[in-house]
Design a protein that fits this description.
Layout lengths: L1 H7 L4 H15 L27 E8 L6 E6 L16 H10 L9 H10 L9 H4 L8 E7 L4 E7 L2 H6 L4 H10 L12 H8 L9 E8 L7 E8 L4 H8 L9 H15 L22 E8 L6 E6 L1 H4 L3 H14 L9 H8 L12 E9 L2 E8 L11
Antiparallel strand pairs: 1-2, 1-10, 2-3, 3-4, 4-5, 5-6, 6-7, 7-8, 8-9, 9-10
Length: about 400
């Protein structure tokens, strides 16, 4: 699947060899337990995707280029995860980061060491209530890779749920505390943190805001970003605009709002003639239901930047409808792949089932825009544990 994505995104041969060999040699050994009889893993349930597939791949289109950049995220899983001396699956992340150095020469671990020490548990020697508590993901760390022609940018994601539960705290409280403790070269990243704190803590209880993840770029702090991921149960277009604009502090232009509205209608399969910005999407109860956002902090920036992740796997009709809707949206903006339309590309990628048979191959479609410089990303779950694969 990665090879096909690189090919259709127009990567040169030497770049494809670099990235596919890295995935084969360094990433695939850490993809967890074999999907025996296509059943979801019972030993380690990755929070990466809803069926616990520990890898998610994506195409990202920006205003600057017509064809996308390829990216992927993975939860490295050791052979002894949830067992013996590696109950919290700490070793695989360390090893994969180390192996990434060879093709990510700009990688810097200053921020990683800071947040790893404060947000994750690494030396648990026996089962604890937090490990078994329903609703608390086992996962603590993801690694993501943005694939460049001659290398990659490495990103690290921290899921603090287990640590927060053990400390009797909340995800937001320990993320806030860890961020406020940044010092030295990382201090400029805090320029807009107070604005973000004020906004998050002003959100109404009715929207059930849940801070899920903190992420960083593994770069020199002055070049890095801090990203705080938050989920709310509100699914109206109006609520999305409120979140993206930080309650009006960072307004979007009419062109940006129109672009997002068109994407919303396209990927959720809605009728544009009856669109109502105050109408929620069809109600669905799920651990990852609702809308997901991130707020990005950069050095010396006065306001956080925002992105919304539209959870199409919960609220669209099926993957065929999503692919057709996004394909039309991209084509109207001159965005494409090196071979054919987005729709035909996704048909090729999802070769284990018919797109119309259900939801789940597309996980999110994200949208962000800054001064009309927008980007749209499609995220895919290879559905390693899907029942379709046993038929």
């Amino acid at each position: 699947m990665l090879t096909d994505m690189l090919t259709m995104a127009g990567y040169p041969v030497h770049s494809m060899v670099l990235h596919t060999e890295f995935f084969r040699k360094s990433v695939s050994p850490y993809l967890g337990f074999h999907p025996s009889a296509t059943e979801a893993p019972h030993v380690w349930r990755s929070f990466m995707t809803d069926d616990h597939t520990p890898v998610e791949l994506s195409w990202c289109w920006s205003a600057a280029k017509d064809i996308p950049k390829v990216r992927y995220s993975v939860e490295p899983i050791s052979r002894s995860a949830a067992q013996g001396a590696d109950l919290v699956n700490a070793t695989a992340n360390v090893r994969l980061l180390g192996e990434s150095l060879s093709i990510a020469p700009d990688m810097d671990l200053y921020l990683h060491r800071h947040f790893r020490n404060l947000l994750t548990s690494r030396h648990i020697t026996q089962q604890t209530d937090a490990t078994l508590q329903p609703g608390v993901p086992q996962s603590q760390c993801f690694i993501a890779f943005d694939l460049l022609e001659k290398g990659m940018v490495v990103k690290q994601y921290y899921l603090p749920g287990q640590t927060a539960t053990r400390e009797g705290s909340s995800n937001w409280d320990i993320i806030k505390d860890a961020t406020q403790k940044l010092s030295g070269p990382a201090v400029p990243l805090l320029a807009s943190f107070d604005v973000l704190v004020s906004f998050i803590e002003s959100l109404s209880a009715e929207s059930q805001p849940t801070v899920e993840i903190l992420a960083i770029d593994c770069l020199d702090p002055i070049k890095s970003r801090l990203k705080v991921y938050i989920r709310t149960i509100d699914t109206t277009f109006h609520s999305v605009l409120n979140m993206l604009t930080l309650g009006g502090k960072a307004p979007k232009s009419d062109e940006e709002v129109d672009s997002l509205r068109e994407l919303w209608i396209s990927v959720f399969g809605l009728n544009p003639d009856s669109f109502d910005m105050y109408q929620p999407l069809l109600f669905k109860v799920h651990r990852t239901g609702g809308m997901l956002y991130y707020f990005e902090l950069k050095a010396n920036e006065a306001l956080p930047k925002s992105k919304v992740y539209l959870p199409v796997r919960h609220y669209a009709q099926n993957d065929d409808q999503i692919a057709k809707g996004l394909s039309n949206y991209l084509e109207q903006r001159g965005k494409k792949l090196s071979e054919g339309s987005y729709y035909h590309a996704v048909q090729k990628l999802c070769n284990h089932r018919n797109l119309a048979d259900g939801l789940g191959f597309h996980t999110y479609i994200s949208w962000a825009s800054d001064h009309n410089q927008w980007n749209v990303t499609a995220y895919f779950n290879p559905e390693i544990y899907a029942s379709y694969r046993s038929e």
